[in-house]
Design a protein that fits this description.
433 residues, alpha/beta, 8-stranded mixed beta sheet, 6-stranded mixed beta sheet, 38% helix, globular, binds flavin-adenine dinucleotide
Length: 433
């Protein structure tokens, strides 16, 4: 399954495998946005960094995602302030809301060629109750000075090119990018500043000896006084309790052929990123070459790829009936790390050992922010000044079963979505509005 991003990413460059022994001031495990943003911010301060990545760059979430740069986290600003108190809560709102500024700022600073478009992010509502929640969300962000606006049914329809939604909101902080090119651009910037990145170099053991953290890969080892775990949904049992703090949920995407110019004038003519409020969340955007890229929750285990793809083709038809008969050129999937409180987590696991993960499907901006937070913490910024809580590692109770529970929940939601579609078709045949 080749992804659209794998086929079109720039620049193409290969990185070596770790062989022999290396030393660094900071060792980073995982070469996605979290790991490379941490590496870049450390390199900017003159710190000697080694990153080890188990696969090739881009084979984790950072090379596979929808490329939607989304501000904030799942919880609304008022809720974050309730959860963390007025002081830390307000800092947290500021930190998560400014994620897109960091992403687009790095793209500008390092001249990263990644089809970046800061056209905004739309969340359209599939029901009146979802629209009521959006109304409150817009009011809360507006109170904090964010460039957001409520959209009525007609405005959403004009911006998206679909009659499917009853309203929504536009957050002008967001946008889109080519996710793998953004990742490669970060890697290039790290290398230019003297950081070392090794691929096909999975850390298979992590231990502490003589005041250093040491990892072992199949052909080498690295030791450093400080280390960062940046493995998100791909977290293995290097620190087993950490693996059990997230549930890895599959997400799947399809990309059409480039759409004819006439359709590009009506479908997302201003090129916003969109994630709707449907039970299973559907997210879509146009690529730079005018393809519709649509994603949703994926399928577990041995579900044939064709089944997952068909499910997505139906979603495209439902939202954009004008795309009847369109050809699909790509489909691919990856894993999203969900947490039980729907928040990303920064953990301090031991002396100089940090971890950042759990972006709940909003990692393009948030993982980049987390990388900077991790770097700042290593550089000596106090926990109070950081603007983000460091939380204890709390494995999800009965983690093994929760993975099964999520699978059942997703299958149940897919069943509900199927029933809703059947009901709509039936109502349509009987001429019911
Ligand atoms: C299909 C899909 C669509 C998504 N769409 C969006 C979107 O549109 N917008 C958005 O904001 N977010 C989206 N996300 C989420 C986003 O991609 C992730 O939150 C983000 O990429 C996480 O970055 P990361 O660096 O923490 O983890 P990753 O990019 O997953 O990187 C972790 C890396 O750690 C490596 N690793 C694991 N174990 C080891 C080890 N022992 N040794 C060495 N390396 C190791 C893995 O190989 C992996 O490359 C999507 C995710 C998926 C899968």
């Amino acid at each position: 399954m080749q992804s659209l991003w794998g086929a079109t990413a720039t620049p193409v460059f290969t990185l070596p495998e770790l062989r022999g022994s290396a030393r660094a001031q900071v060792l980073i495990i995982g070469g996605g946005y979290t790991g490379l943003s941490a590496a870049l911010h450390l390199c900017e301060s003159g710190v000697d960094v080694v990153v080890v990545e188990a696969a090739q760059l881009g084979e984790g979430g950072s090379g596979l995602n929808g490329g939607q740069v989304i501000p904030g986290v799942k919880h609304d600003p008022d809720k974050l302030e309730q959860m963390f108190g007025a002081g830390l809560g307000a800092q947290l709102v500021e930190t998560v809301g400014s994620g897109p500024d960091l992403v687009f700022g790095l793209i500008e600073k390092y001249q990263i060629d990644c089809e970046a478009t800061r056209s905004g992010w739309i969340q359209p509502a599939t029901s009146e109750s979802a629209l009521a929640a959006i109304d409150a969300r817009v009011e809360q962000w507006r109170r904090r000075g964010a460039p957001v606006e409520l959209l009525d049914r007609h405005q959403v329809s004009r911006l998206i090119g679909s009659e499917r939604y009853c309203g929504g909101w536009l957050d002008r902080r967001g946008g889109t990018l080519q996710p793998r090119s953004f990742l490669f651009g970060l890697a290039l910037a790290v290398e230019r500043l003297g950081g070392r990145i090794f691929t096909r170099s999975a850390a298979v053991r992590l231990e502490r000896a003589g005041g250093q953290w040491r990892i072992q890969t199949s052909r080498g080892q690295v030791s450093a006084p400080a280390a960062v775990l940046a493995t998100d949904a791909y977290t293995g049992n290097l620190v087993d309790a950490l693996r059990r703090t997230v549930i890895a949920v599959p997400s799947f995407q399809v990309a059409t052929e480039p759409l004819p110019e006439a359709l590009r004038q009506t479908i997302l003519p201003q090129r916003q990123a969109v994630s709707d409020t449907w039970h299973l969340l559907r997210y879509f955007r146009l690529s730079a070459d005018g393809r519709l890229v649509m994603g949703s929750r994926g399928f577990f285990g041995n579900t044939p790829v064709a089944t997952a793809a068909r499910h997505h083709y139906r979603a495209v038809q439902e939202i954009f009936p004008q795309l009847q008969g369109v050809r699909y050129d790509y489909h691919w999937g990856g894993l999203v790390a969900m947490t039980s409180d729907h928040l990303p987590h920064l953990h301090e696991l031991g002396p100089g050992l940090l971890a950042g993960l759990g972006y709940n499907g909003r990692g393009v901006a948030m993982a980049t922010v987390m990388g900077r937070l991790l770097a700042r913490r290593i550089l000596g910024v106090s926990a109070e000044e950081l603007g983000f809580p460091a939380t204890a590692v709390r494995p999800i109770p009965l983690h093994r079963f929760s993975q099964i529970g999520v699978r059942l929940a997703i299958e149940y939601l897919q069943l509900l979505a199927g029933l809703a579609r059947a009901r709509e078709r039936f109502a349509g045949r009987r001429g019911v509005a």
